[in-house]
Amino acid sequence: MPPSTTTSHYMDFVEPSDKLKDRVGGLPTLAPPALPWNPNDGKDYAFLMELWTDDKRLPVPSASCIQFYQCLEPGSNPLAIALPSGYTAPFEDMGVIKVHPDIREWSISYREVSDPNPLPEDMDRAPYFRSKLGGEDPTSFDFDGRKFLGFLKNNPVGFDFAGLSMAFYWKDDKIEVHLL
Fold it and tell me: For residue range 93-106, what is the model confidence (pLDDT) as tens digits?
């Protein structure tokens, strides 16, 4: 019997396009429901990317999109903050959210690819460590019932997680982000 497969949506970062909703850089399209940091802590945070949800590629209940932010302060934790947004209100720039100075704007298109289930062991797993949504979790970590949503390879288009890659998961109505 042949191995089963799951569908992944591999990211391709392309020139900005109004036809593609998922994007990197600039400012968010939708207003976040709340700032995921304390605006009085004296630190600057920047918008990284916005991924729109749907039942096929990124199934997150009650969210229109997931927005990612990162602290800009030198030496700060490189872990991105992920915020599911159920809002539909357009973003209004009030100066609280910054444009990330290290990345330019990109749109994200997707290629549907079948990942083997389970993934190969050890180094044979390397081709599946790509920026993607869905499919098999390339990390092989057991995250206790968390649903794998996606994976961002380090420095896909100019933003960095201190030399690490980032995986994100859904559990208990929250997005969990882990650096690997």
Answer: 777 788 888 888 99
Rounded to a whole number of angstroms, the CA Rg of the chain reads 16
Give me the amino acid identity at 104.
R
pLDDT of residue 3 exceeding 60: no
Alpha-carbon gap, residue 172 to 19, rounded angstroms: 32
Tokens 């390879």 identify what position? 153
- DSSP-assigned beta bridge partners for residue 166: 152, 179
Whether residue 156 contacts residue 129, with contact meaning beta carbons closer than 8 Å, is answered with: no
Q: Is the pLDDT of residue 123 over 70?
A: no
- What confidence score (pLDDT) does residue 12 get? 93
| Phi, psi (rounded to 5 degrees) for 29 | -80, -45
Question: Whole-model pTM?
Answer: 0.88
128, 115 contact by CB (below 8 A): yes
**Beta bridge pairs of residue 33:** none
- Contact between residue 68 and residue 49 where contact means Cβ atoms under 8 Å apart: yes
Tell me: pLDDT of 34 over 50. Answer: yes
Distances in Å between the alpha carbon of 119 and those of 31, 38, 122, 130?
37, 40, 9, 13
Residue 96 three-state SS: coil
Which amino acid type is present at position 24? V
